[in-house]
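Translate structure to sequence.
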């Protein structure tokens, strides 16, 4: 099994606690949820198409969240506090490096990380809100922060999510997974059926 291990679980939890609240605040709770689900789907599809072993674990969604966070930072780099961004950017680098090390030391699937990160960045780009600096207020003389686009919109997020799922699913029609992946999938299905037969 790929993506297993206590260190991998700890890394996933740390990344989710670090970036989850920021992405939820930036994109809204619905879009955050869709980013998480889309990261899981894209990570598993990327893994299935490139690796012969079955995959477990939830780092794909976490890397999708990091990808969406990165896009939000790039799109709003002129108006976001540098200290907070630099701190999280350092965490993103550390998480990526640790993920790469775990990929080479244990059963961790880098295809899941890469596929989910790319999907999170694309989806984040299409649904991200944009901040801009307002003109100086004549009453206070202070520069204000105005939200130009609150969120991408729930309906827009859902539409883009559905289109993304269709596009990702279509990859399974046009790309062939490794032959061992099909054999492993069959083995997992047999084990699952045997396990279910015990209770029914």
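Result:
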């Amino acid at each position: 099994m790929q993506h297993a291990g206590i260190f991998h679980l700890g890394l996933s939890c740390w990344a989710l606690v670090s970036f989850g609240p920021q992405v939820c605040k930036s994109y809204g709770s619905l879009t955050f949820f869709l980013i998480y689900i889309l990261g899981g789907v894209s990570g598993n599809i990327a893994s299935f198409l490139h690796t012969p072993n079955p995959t477990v674990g939830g780092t794909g969604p976490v890397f999708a969240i990091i990808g969406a966070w990165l896009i939000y930072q790039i799109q709003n780099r002129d108006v976001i506090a540098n200290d907070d961004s630099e701190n999280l950017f350092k965490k993103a680098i550390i998480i990526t490096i640790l993920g790469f090390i775990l990929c080479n030391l244990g059963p961790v699937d880098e295809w899941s990380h890469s596929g989910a990160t790319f999907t999170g960045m694309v989806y984040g780009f299409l649904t991200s809100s944009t901040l801009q600096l307002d003109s100086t207020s004549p009453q206070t003389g202070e520069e204000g922060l105005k939200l130009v686009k609150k969120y991408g919109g729930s309906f827009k997020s859902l539409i883009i999510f559905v289109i993304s799922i269709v596009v990702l699913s279509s990859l399974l029609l046009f790309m062939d997974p490794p032959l061992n992946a099909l054999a492993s999938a069959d083995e997992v299905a047999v084990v699952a059926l045997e396990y279910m037969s015990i209770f029914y």
